[in-house]
Amino acid sequence: MALTGIQIYKLLPKTNCKDCGFPTCLAFAMKLAAKQVELSACPHISEEAKAVLAESASPPIRLVTLKADGYEVKAGNEVVLFRHEKKFYHKPGFFIRERDDASLDQIRERVAATDAYTVNYVGMDLTLDGFAVESASGDPTTFSQAISAVRAVSQRPLILMSRDPGVMAAGLQAVNGEAPLIYAADADNWEAMADLAKQHQAPLAVFADSLEGLADLTQKIKARGVEDMVLDHGARDLGTSLARNTVIRRLALKKTFRPLGYPIIAFPGDAGDAAWEAILAAHAVAKYAGFIVLDHTAPEMLYPLLVLRENIYTDPQKPIQVQPGLYEINDPSPEDPVLATTNFSITYFSVANEVEGAGLPAWLLVTDAEGMSVLTAWAAGKFDAERIAKDVRRFHVPDKVHRKRIVIPGHVAVISGELEEELPDWEVRVGPREAVDLPTYMKEALV
Questions:
Q1: Which of 91, 232, 280, 350 has the greatest CB tally within 10 Å of its CB?
Q2: Is-contact 57 31, C-beta < 8 A?
Q3: What's the structural domain count of the chain?
Q4: Longest dimension (CA), the chain
């Protein structure tokens, strides 16, 4: 059973040395009880206390890492049910399933295309995370060859799928030295699968069609020496999956129920229909899968899923930002105008894309507004005349621009007079309120 903050405090040095980053040992104890800090943050705790606190201090959901050559996918260590409470830390990994009954050429061709897939979203390159290789043939040699075919064109992490320990042993030999996810141990094969996981130091997925069955298996497997596990509760429909995912998360976080304190794996691809697969995958991203196995790779499905994942797993209290600075659009000359905006990424890309798409040259001054949008930053005092003028000087704009014209967003027209005082030798112009109107404004008003 998890210890309370007071119980933890009694085991701490009680020196209030602040070396842990907290003002008192009691404050540290309360954070430790809430799973918001690591026990290692206290450098003065005794070995005896460490032994007592080790179980209580460990994360409620174990961190599981799949590793390959230069890549890794992590799931677990989450400490909240809802992202507004704090944030979600480890984005679920998207894995594309390949079956070994396809030809090796087909496998290599598909994997190469998937491995190269990338989309740019507000300045970030979003990609898929790895591949799940399933033994549809049931033959150890065929399975091993399929894995080698994947490895010939991609080094991303793998999930190896077979319930036959003999087939799985052959697959593990094909990626010796890596840490793929072994899928899956069940009530019939768990001993052999646990031995393979222990031998190869690889995480093990555990399958049961009930939460009681899962909890029973994880305890047996842990007693056999395997610590890193992933849960498959067997549900494939939307309602049951949502219910079981939520119960697992609640038991792990609220009750510190260790037998279910592991990441969840989801298989939206089992739906068989691309539309349902997308729905189930979106649900898995939000509630609460750590690894997601897909069968379809159509861009119109992958792109929204990658964006959804990025949005859910950003810090809700920290906007996505771009680096403040002076950006060049369409190779501007010293005679071209300077457009001022904030460093909120969506604002930046809205402005940049409209101007670039219209083929208009301009200098884009991105000011440090702590990642807020124009109106929000202005209301918070983070986007005003003083800050804009400061960044004009900080980024040496006068050295690059001869005709000194600066355009501010129409939403903050009220600061134009103050900006003229801050930049007396500049012509301050008030632009449109919306980025979509910038091309027309620049063609008609900035002549």
A1: 280
A2: no
A3: 3
A4: 81
180: CB partners within 8 A, 6+ apart: 66, 68, 157, 158, 159, 160, 172, 202
Q: Note whether 186 and 207 are same-domain residues.
A: yes
Question: 43: which 2 tokens?
Answer: 């450098």
For tokens 């305890």, what's the residue? 219
351 neighbors 364 (Cβ within 8 angstroms): yes
- In terms of DSSP H, where are the helices of 163-273? 165-174, 190-200, 211-223, 238-254
First-last CA distance in the chain: 73
184 within 8 A of 231, measured Cβ to Cβ: no
Position 39 in a domain: yes
Tokens standing for residue 26: 């009691």
Name which residue leads in pLDDT, 272 or 144.
144
Q: Which alpha helices (DSSP H) does 117-210 contain, by range?
A: 140-153, 165-174, 190-200
270/361 same-domain check: no
Cα 386 to Cα 348, 383, 399: the distances in Å are 20, 8, 19
DSSP state of 316: T
Helix-helix angle 299-312:274-286, to 10 degrees: 10
* Torsional class of 431: left (φ above 0), alpha (ψ -120 to 50), beta (otherwise): beta
Residue range(s) defining the domain that contains residue 353: 325-444
Q: Are 85 and 282 in contact (CB under 8 A)?
A: no
Question: What CATH number should be reported for the domain holding residue 209?
Answer: 3.20.20.20
**What pLDDT is attached to residue 242?**
96
Which pTM value belongs to this model?
A: 0.78
> Angle between the 25-33 and 47-57 helix axes, to the nearest 10 degrees?
40
Residue 2 has pLDDT above 70, yes or no: no
Q: Is 359 left (phi over 0), alpha (psi -120 to 50) or beta?
A: left
d(CA 407, CA 172): 61
